[in-house]
Specification:
Order of helices and strands of chain B: HHHHH
Low-confidence stretches of chain A: none
Number of helices of chain A: 8
Shape of chain A: globular
Low-confidence stretches of chain B: none
Radius of gyration of chain B: 20 Å
Largest sheet of chain B: none
Largest interface: A-B, 73 and 65 residues
Number of strands of chain B: 0
Distance between the termini of chain B: 32 Å
Number of strands of chain A: 2
Shape of chain B: flat
Strand order of the largest sheet of chain A: 1-2
Strand content of chain B: under 5%
Distance between the termini of chain A: 28 Å
Number of helices of chain B: 5
Helix content of chain A: 55-70%
Oligomer: heterodimer
């Protein structure tokens, strides 16, 4: 899911930088308004968790690897706007220090994993949970939130990679950037996330929510107030 | 720090220590890179060539610890595993530090607004 340098044309990565900047600006403003000192350690731990869970590469035997991101559970626990900041910090450090994801693709990677994913996950959780207090339903909502959030995020990546051959080609027609068309990128990314990585993300999301409900259910953002 | 927070931090450190699972499993199951994250060598093998623009941009940044590996490309698996744990601990420190810094700046900016 971490798009490296060279896979996206400037026509793609510049607008995605702009999109991420807009979300960062709004998220920082919201955080400034709502941030209290007692939340800071939780935001730091959320970012650390997202960093670490992404290190657990899961293999498809004989094929590719993938991993959970943790943006869904962070959105449920701390709110989607806080998740935007926490996961963006992770992605920027991964790119700069560890070469995981490109420098030119920071905007794209943040948009996919730190904007699309937390919001989709959060909406799914709220929609499936509804006003229910039923534990089973709440954990099912959390599973779906991680499962669908990660898959939609992967589809965003597939779309950005898949349109590259349409955007830029050499005079002989060969692609200049990511070489595979939408007809390859979308099915591959959709299937591997629907069949494996999304399920892991869903299970992690549901298990962690269960842990927080048991120990500190007062702090769960998605349980407070209305459909923010 | 509350007891609950302490527990969570310990959990995160345990994750860092266990993180080499994330490189051992792919090795055991003969799985390669994530889809769409290949290096230029692998692309050359897949396509027979490296797309022009991709080649130009791929080396734009030299990360200090590429691939969470301190031992370079030919590092033994043991070195890679140890590097991975160190990277996990560094990751906790860097992202945690960045969050504290951002939060401090935000809280200070808020304080100024209130006084103004």
């Amino acid at each position: 899911m971490h798009i490296p340098d060279g896979y996206l044309s400037p026509q793609t990565y510049v607008p995605l930088y702009a999109a991420s900047f807009v979300f960062w600006a709004i998220a920082l403003r919201k955080l400034k308004k709502e941030l209290s000192v007692k939340h800071v350690p939780y935001i730091a731990m959320a970012a650390a968790f997202s960093f670490l869970i992404q290190m657990f590469n899961i293999p498809i035997p004989g094929g590719t690897t993938g991993h959970a991101v943790g943006a869904g559970i962070i959105a449920i626990l701390l709110g989607p706007w806080t998740a935007v900041i926490a996961v963006s910090v992770v992605l920027i450090i991964q790119a700069m220090v560890f070469g995981d994801g490109g420098i030119t693709a920071i905007g794209a990677n943040c948009f996919n994993m730190a904007v699309v994913m937390p919001f989709v996950s959060y909406w799914i959780f709220k929609a499936v949970k509804g006003s229910s207090e039923n534990k089973k339903r709440i954990y099912f909502a959390a599973f779906l939130s991680g499962y669908i959030g990660l898959t939609v995020s992967a589809l965003a990546v597939a779309f950005q990679l898949g349109i590259q051959p349409l955007i830029a080609a050499a005079p002989d027609g060969s692609p200049l950037y990511a070489p595979y068309p939408l007809s390859v990128a979308v099915p591959v990314m959709a299937l591997e996330h629907l069949l494996l990585f999304g399920i892991i993300e869903g299970v992690v999301t549901a298990m962690l929510l269960k842990y927080f409900v048991k120990h500190e259910s007062d702090m769960v953002y998605a349980f407070q107030g209305g459909a923010r | 720090m509350t007891r609950f927070q302490k527990k969570l931090w310990i959990g995160l450190i345990i994750m860092a220590i266990l993180s080499p699972i994330g490189i051992i499993l792919p090795e055991k199951f003969n799985a390669g890179d994530a889809w769409g994250e290949w290096g230029t060598d692998t692309i050359e093998k897949l396509l027979g060539y490296v797309p022009e623009g991709l080649k130009r941009l791929s080396d734009i940044w030299k990360a200090p610890i590429p691939d969470y590996n301190l031992g370079g490309e030919n590092a033994s698996f043991g070195v890679q595993a140890v590097s991975y744990v160190i990277s996990g601990i560094l990751g906790i420190a860097f992202v945690g530090g960045a969050v504290y810094l951002i939060s401090r700046l935000l809280i200070r900016a808020k304080g100024k607004e209130h006084r103004a």
